[in-house]
Amino acid sequence: MGFVNKHAALILIVGLLLCPAMAGGQTRPLDEYVAAPDTVFKWQLLTSLPVASGGTLHQITFTSQTWKETVWNHRIYLVIPDGELIGNTALLFITGSGSGTTEVTLMTQLAQMVSAPVAVLFDVPNQPLFGGLREDALIAMTFDKFLETEDPTWPALVPMTKAAVRALDVITEFCRSRLDWEVKDFLVTGGSKRGWTTWLAAAVDDRISVIAPIAYDNLDLNTQMELQTKSFGSYSLKIHDYTERSLQQKLTTELGLKLVDIVDPYAYRDRYTLPKLIIRGSNDPYWPTDATLVYIDDLPGDTWIHNDPNGGHDLSNYPRVLATLAGYFISQTRGPKIGPVKWNVTESAEDFTLEVISPAPAHAFNLWSATALSRDFRNATWSHESVEGGEKHTFKIPRHSALYRAVYGEVIFKVGDLEMAFDTPIFIVEPRR
Question: How many other C-beta atoms can be found within 10 angstroms of the C-beta atom of residue 121?
Answer without folding.
Answer: 31
